[in-house]
Specification:
With 301 residues, the chain is mainly alpha-helical. It has ten helices and two strands. A two-stranded antiparallel sheet has the order 1-2. It comes from Rhizophagus clarus. Keywords: Membrane, Transmembrane, Transmembrane helix. This is G-protein coupled receptors family 2 profile 2 domain-containing protein.
């Protein structure tokens, strides 16, 4: 086991702990099930990669069945993580666009359906292709789809890259909508201040003063609730945008490398490459994005 393999295994272990913590926190809070599914799937990915330690990462000596299973599950789990992120992006986008959840996605059952059916369809196609071509071979870190290289286009290097495009659109649109409606809260505060100043400068009767105070308190309460709802939405959109952007960046890097290898007819390097490092830090990135939110911090208090 080389030094680079040892270090990346440690990083995967840390990422596993980070994702497991986020998944448990969301389960306890009963919130964000889509991100919870993403974290659980990523934990499975970490376990799958770390299973190579059983053979001291000398996977050429591992049974062929183990190697095939490990390489195939890496791709299959990535289908689940990508679809979870896309569904989460659409959920936030729908909330901001319609001020409520989309009717079509109201029960979230369609999200769960997509998370199940998408990996199954592509997984069956990838399984048959890998079985016929023998595309899964041992590498330094794990067994992977590598020869012939074009088969990787059926995995996260190709299919998930295309899938990440609408996720980026939803993220960008959500951020734009949030920025566009930012002034509404400021105007609402100014109106509230104007009403308070008017009530102070005038000399109404006792009944008018009572009604004015009640109206001002009600308006102030609505303002606070609207501002609180806006802050939560803003945090969610920022977290969603960063997470979605991170996923598409990784898929872009993986896709570019795969396309170059396909065009040049080169095999995937057996050594640890940038795709392996990028995949190993996703759990840590998820923790940095969601772990410091108020909901997660308060989950264990």
């Amino acid at each position: 086991m080389g030094l680079s393999v040892m270090i990346i295994n440690i990083v995967y272990l840390i990422s596993f702990a980070c994702s497991f913590y986020i998944a448990l926190s969301l389960l306890k809070l009963r919130k964000n099930p889509l991100i919870g599914i993403y974290c659980c799937a990523y934990c499975l990915l970490c376990c799958n990669v770390l299973s190579g330690i059983i053979f001291k990462n000398d996977l050429s000596s591992a049974p062929k069945a183990f190697c095939f299973f490990q390489g195939y599950m890496v791709q299959f789990i990535c289908y689940i993580t990508s679809m979870s992120v896309i569904c989460f992006s659409h959920e936030i986008y729908s909330l901001l666009m319609n001020y409520k959840q989309s009717r079509f996605f109201e029960s979230k059952k369609i999200y769960y359906f997509l998370i199940i059916i998408y990996p199954l369809i592509l997984g069956i196609l990838l399984f048959i292709t890998c079985l016929k071509t023998g595309a899964i071979i041992p590498r330094e870190l794990k067994c992977d789809v590598a020869n012939p290289i074009w088969v990787r286009l059926l995995g996260y290097s190709g299919a998930n890259f295309i899938l990440s495009i609408p996720g980026t659109y939803f993220s960008a649109r959500s951020a734009y909508i949030l920025y566009k409606h930012l002034n509404q809260f400021k105007d609402f505060s100014l109106i509230n201040e104007g009403i308070s100043q008017t009530s102070q400068n005038s000399t109404p009767s006792n009944s008018q003063i009572t009604q004015s105070r009640k109206f001002s308190q009600s308006l102030s309460l609505q303002n606070n609730l609207s501002q609180k709802r806006y802050n939560l939405t803003k945090e969610a959109v920022i977290r969603m945008s960063i997470l979605s952007s991170s996923i598409i960046l990784i898929n872009c890097l993986a896709s570019i490398g795969t396309i170059v290898s396909v065009l040049s007819h080169e095999l995937l390097s057996k050594e640890v490459n940038i795709n392996d490092w990028a995949g190993s830090v996703m759990g840590i990135c998820t923790f940095l994005i969601f772990g410091f939110s108020r909901e997660i911090r308060n989950a264990w208090r």
